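--- STAGE predict ---
source: upstream dedup step, 1 unique chain passed
mode: sequence only
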Amino acid sequence: MAKKFGLGKGVDAVFASEPEDSSSDFDSAANLSSSAILGDESEKKSTGVKIKTSLPEGITADENGTLWVNPLLLKPNPRQPRQFFDEAKLAELTESVRQEGVLSPIIIEDANDGTFFIIAGERRTRAARAAGLEKVPVQLRKYSEERKLEVALIENIQREDLNPVEEAQAYYKLMEISGITQEQVAQRVGKDRSTVANCLRLLKLPEDMQRSLAQGSLTSGHARALLSVVNPTDQRILFGKIVGQGMSVRQAEQIAQEYNGKKSAKITDSNALKKDNRDPNFIEIEHKLIETLGTKVQMKGNFDKGSITIDYFSKDDFEKIYNIITK
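--- STAGE serialize ---
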């Protein structure tokens, strides 16, 4: 699902005191002097002063001061906002890494147990493992829990790698961990406050709709149309139409307006406000039918006895329902 992110000077401010993990997986590696790394063992020959330090076990430094580690020792960032990795794109990256190696250092943190957390560069790490590399270039850092999430979030946004739900969850976690406002989050990632606020609204969607959004069955535009629907049943019907009929965002917006504009019995009837005491599995099946058929479906009774009522509102609706049921 294509997305566009407009990053402002907020990102530059975040990385003002540390090298930025490049927006390309294949940018030139930044040589990091071993004397500048906490725990490195080096000698300042120009002054004759020896600095007695040591690298964590598993990390080596070459003659240029670049640090290297076996990718098998790298663990995912516990605050990594991205959960979905495109397998096709990862395969392309793996082939390139197999030919050229990993050219941009992976930012890591010592886990103090012989392994290291990936702060930025999980795709490169996965590709390196798949390509059979025995070592990758790294930069060794130390971060707070809040900073781990912030760095991973900004790197993924720069690369446009997060789906809308992952991005919203990352903003929420950042606010939860650091106790900052939406506006402060927006400043840190270089976005407008309204952009962050609209993204966070996606978390109000039911979980199955969030999954469809994460998987690309819905766009952010579709999600906004669904969020605008007042009545939960109407929202379900619209969701089914979007997924089942490949409806455009504009069409979804128009139907959402129609649902909200009409004085439906579903909205005004006091019975609709009563708690649904049916079996949760029974209700879930009703929701699945609504999504599959793209129309209103009412199931009464239980698994032993009851009725299913399917509404249609046009000839096209009727033909679609007929074709689905008789297929």
